[in-house]
Design goal:
Naphthalene 1,2-dioxygenase Alpha Subunit, Chain A, domain 1; nine-stranded antiparallel sheet; globular
Amino acid sequence: MSYTEQQIADMVQPTKVHRSLYTDPEIFDLEMERIWANAWIYIGHESQVPEKGSYMTLNYGKVPVVMVRDNDNDVHVLHNRCGHKGAKLVDRPCGKIPAFRCCYHGWRYRLDGKLLGVPHLQGYDGTDFDKDDPQYSMQKMTSESFRGFVFATMNPNPPDLRTWMGGAADVMDNLCDRAPEGEVEAAGGVLRYEHECNWKMFIENLNDTMHPMIVHRSVVESALDYIKTLPEGSPRRDEAEIIPPFGASYETFEETGITGFRFGHHYDGGKTSIHAKYTLDPEYEAAMLKAYGKERMQEILSFNTHNTLYYPSLTIKSAVQNIRVVRPIAYNKTIIETWSFRLKGAPDSMLKRTLLYSRLINSNGSMVGPDDLTAYFRMQEGLQSQASDWIEMHRNFARDEKLEDRMVGKGTSDLDVRTQFSAWREYMTEAA
């Protein structure tokens, strides 16, 4: 069926959403056209294209794109498409090249996308073909970088990136400020995890603090049983700090709080989070003291958030320096990528902890991620049932507090999903 704009708007109510948002391929296609083509979508980090000619490829929604550093050291996001017959110009995930060259007819492009050369050009003599016409170049996407994190959009009139991020930018600032040198760089490769579910299920789960003590109970209990067997005076036990907080009480999560922003962004925590009691590495503490002084160091390290969502494509954990990127494939299939970051100027032990966290929590062979995926898969299957057309999100409704640029609520509030679906409704109707 084809939906009217009013029908789409009616799918999101203040305390409920229609199940077709997860089960209808037509809705998914509309989301790609109206949300993913109009929001700022995370592309990658500048450190992933460190040298002239370095590139990485990915899909922006359904559209193949390439992020590349040109000969002037500028970073561009280009449509990965030849201006001739439309073939993808590069197919490898990443690499380094002097120029783009099409595998079909050999058209060549500069690293900034401009058409450089056409074989046997005299064949166009006497026609109106103009090699310098921009339509034949690789088309640039509108892109901006914040603290090295590159976003792009197909929206012809987007808000600037910093305005779009709103107060959620504080968390990305905090991620970078946790580096003694004030910068981070991608390190340690990528974990890709295929999810047989709708993309929204993953981002709704990020700050859902009503599920950890249920979904992750068995792994937390197993970890606690193992910890009891360790002898007194054992060396640093990072696993013992990482896993047990996932079994925290409702009251503990209630205290963390949730903060929501326009455009669907939100974070859990701020003053405290499940990462707040991690041991402070002495070598790292010394580097931070030297870089910032005691007062500023304490200010940086005391800002503790759990997950921060930059709707719809990026979630970051500033306290453990990793991000997860959402790559929708179909209404019932999503790829989640986890990238880890090195704090420049910090000891190697900090990156090791970040990588350990990713393996324990985010990988497809982890101790926590498959718990969540099981729930997503069961929801994807269960929502095929017509027993009810609606999914509720009432918790703490009308009890969240509206401040100047944000909404704040208790940690178990459904404020996070209400924030997301408010943005969903706005994108899906205003862009129609």
